[in-house]
Amino acid sequence: MTDNRSPIEKNSPDDSGWGECPPGEISGMLNRLSRQRKLAASAKISAVAAALLVGAGIWQTLPVTTQRTETRDGEYQFGSICCSDVIQYAAAFKKGELDTERMAQIRQHIAECPHCRPEFEKDANQTQSLLDNRHGRIGTASLAHSGLLVTTR
Length: 153
Prior knowledge:
Elements: H1 7-11, H2 25-61, E1 69-70, E2 76-78, E3 81-82, H3 83-95, H4 100-112, H5 116-135, H6 141-146
Helix pairs in contact: 3-4
């Protein structure tokens, strides 16, 4: 049996509602899907890049006290003060003669600095030994009040 229908009738839907696709319809759909996938992928990449930029911006705005900065001659800067400044103010710090801001900077530096902490802990232990020998055993709360005892995180 031969099909005597015209080309227009061949592309029209039959009784089931299905008909032949026009030429280029499937390739056009594939191209649109490909573009949509590329746009979705670039949107994800853009979102990740934006999140990284925001994170970097937040990190840059953190106070210097949370960042370990190596300065001249192997010194470190913690608490907005470097090792040589801590050494310079050590005697006044131990006597409690500094203003509260400088005392807080030095306490934070001592708590975080791997070079300065052992020196101040050694001084606190020596002071504790002297007080133990001179006045009998006392609590470390007295040392903490004087600023000699520094707690670490």
